[in-house]
Amino acid sequence: MDNPIYIALSRQTALRRQMSVVANNVANMNTTGFKREMMVYQAYSEKVPFTTKMDFVIDQGTATDHKAGGLMVTNNTFDLAINGPGYFQVDDGEAIQYTRNGTFTLDGNNRLVTQQGYVVMDPQGNPIVVPGTGSGLTISEDGSIQMDDQQVGRVAVYEFDDQRALKKTRHSMFQTDQTPNPPERSRVMQGMVESSNVSGVAEMTQLIEVSRAYESVKNIIDREDKRQEAMIQKLARPMQGF
Q: What is the pTM of this model?
């Protein structure tokens, strides 16, 4: 294959990966606290004989859109959302993680945990243990947990200097080497959760556009393949008159 087909294949490979990324966004449209992914491309110019320069498409991976999703009212005692750029701190048993998914509950030891059973941490890095069944429990905007006018704990919320440095792991959670900052611009909202920031209409539109672009590149490759085949047949044809 010559350069034009290699270039077309680089674009086709990138489109195929983009299709997977967009499809994953659509699949998580209703996942609490999910942040949509975006493709990151880089162009590498290549001179092609008899044409202007063409660009190889280099897949540099994905970037996370950290724009906040909408807040949904659930009225559940242990459902928490963050109004602002902060993140809850949880311990998955292996490492510290950060998440915007505040769909919490109590485990068998009365610890506040995520739906996956990961422990929600307080500002001192300890698990939050709720007395009794949590009846009458209220959580204020600074994360303080109160029962019968007595503070029994506090949910840790942290902000980061660079959200782009947060590495997505699993279950809408992130890891980072950054030092977390106090939540100066974040407020905890009880009885609410943050929805996904995926726009179904926008993602479905992009899915159609990517599909059409993929088919267009496929047609280019097919035409180039037929052109080369015709050229080879013509060159291989015996010359007349000798």
A: 0.82
